[in-house]
């Protein structure tokens, strides 16, 4: 592997440019909003806001989540752009599994998001919701060549359109994962480098068809510059990093949430089942231990997931994530990446971006 640590090249997504090819991964509920995303963009990267229950602290949220989330999307995208001061890009991460997915997409475009990254399901209809004239770039999150080809083929056939870029999320990512529990049981046995190369090869057909470059961003387990250099050698154009940005002063989470990351050991990580229907990686805490003893009764539905039946799911993921972001950790779900045990101190976005990029 080339160990020459030269400055990373800029990331070009169509006519849009990020000076540093680092995307800060979207983290909900409320972990990555305008403060973090704006700070990352100001450093020349791509700051990403998660729209999942983004308006959890807006007045009236308990009565009307949909309205508060729409308001918060506009507010946080615009605020992040103000913080960025014209540098980098500001985007949003929107889960396909959301009940109000289309609303979130349309509101993000209206607010002026530079990019929309969409996963936790296959975003088959994303091009229908985001016109090329809007200037907002669109990207699916995929974890396999099969998923990448399915989306690119469908977008080309149905909308005569292709992805502006692709995010490949590996098995070491945090939050919801596109892998089975069996695959995640021994993540080191998965040769994901080969899958990355297969996805890069797959997208070349669509680059030729649409006469444009489709940048590939690799996510999941990217921790330091050595990891960045490694995936760049595989053919990636950039990386997406999430967990490391939690332990920054600018992260929108509570101080207690950040301390949980800093104090975590690798042995604290556990794979949990999310009401979204996917496995998720989280820190084992009192909340998870409580769930092992029995189902957490759901007394209120927050209308977040399209396919959630409050009578059957083991817990309310909205309530669990809101408790966590507020700092009530014993009552909350703390999603994390596989390398959280390597995070030992608080830093700033500027210091972290300097460490990774230069």
UniProtKB/TrEMBL annotation:
Keyword Heme in annotation: no
Entry GO MF terms: monooxygenase activity
Keywords from the UniProt entry: Flavoprotein, FMN, Monooxygenase, Oxidoreductase
UniProt keyword annotation of Flavoprotein present: yes
Alphabetized Pfam families for the sequence: NMO (PF03060)
Cross-referenced SUPFAM superfamilies: Inosine monophosphate dehydrogenase (IMPDH)
Name of the protein: Probable nitronate monooxygenase
Native organism: Blautia intestinihominis
Protein purpose: Nitronate monooxygenase that uses molecular oxygen to catalyze the oxidative denitrification of alkyl nitronates. Acts on propionate 3-nitronate (P3N), the presumed physiological substrate. Probably functions in the detoxification of P3N, a metabolic poison produced by plants and fungi as a defense mechanism.
Classification lineage: Bacteria, Bacillati, Bacillota, Clostridia, Lachnospirales
């Amino acid at each position: 592997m080339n160990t020459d640590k030269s400055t990373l090249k800029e990331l070009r997504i169509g006519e849009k440019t990020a000076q540093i090819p680092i995307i800060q991964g979207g983290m909900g509920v409320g972990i990555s909003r305008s403060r973090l995303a704006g700070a990352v963009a100001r450093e020349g990267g791509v700051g990403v806001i998660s729209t999942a229950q983004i308006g959890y602290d807006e007045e009236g949220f308990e009565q009307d989540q949909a309205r508060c989330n729409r308001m918060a999307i506009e507010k946080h995208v615009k605020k992040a752009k103000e913080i960025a001061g014209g540098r980098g890009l500001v985007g949003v991460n929107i889960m396909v599994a959301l009940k109000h997915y289309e609303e979130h997409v349309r509101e993000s475009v209206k607010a002026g998001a530079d990019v929309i990254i969409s996963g936790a399901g296959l975003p088959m209809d994303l091009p229908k919701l985001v016109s090329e004239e809007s200037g907002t770039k669109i990207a699916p999150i995929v974890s396999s060549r099969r998923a990448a080809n399915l989306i690119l083929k469908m977008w080309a056939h149905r909308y005569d359109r292709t992805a502006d870029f692709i995010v490949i999320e590996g098995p070491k990512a945090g939050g919801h994962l596109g892998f089975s529990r069996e695959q995640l049981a021994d993540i080191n046995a998965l040769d994901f480098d080969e899958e990355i190369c297969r996805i890069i090869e797959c997208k070349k057909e669509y680059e030729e068809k649409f006469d444009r470059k489709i940048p590939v961003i690799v996510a999941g387990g990217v921790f330091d510059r050595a990891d960045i250099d490694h995936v760049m050698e595989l053919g990636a154009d950039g990386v997406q990093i999430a967990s490391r940005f939690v332990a920054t002063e600018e992260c929108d989470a509570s101080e207690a949430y950040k301390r949980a990351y800093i104090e975590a050991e690798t042995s604290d990580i556990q794979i949990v089942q999310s009401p979204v229907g996917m496995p998720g990686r989280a820190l084992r805490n009192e909340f998870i231990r409580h769930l092992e003893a029995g189902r957490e009764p759901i007394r209120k539905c927050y209308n977040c997931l399209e396919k959630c039946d409050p009578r059957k799911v083991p817990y309310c993921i909205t309530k669990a994530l809101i408790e966590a972001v507020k700092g009530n950790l014993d009552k909350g779900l703390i999603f994390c990446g596989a390398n959280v045990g390597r995070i030992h101190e608080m830093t700033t976005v500027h210091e972290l971006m300097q460490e990774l990029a230069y």
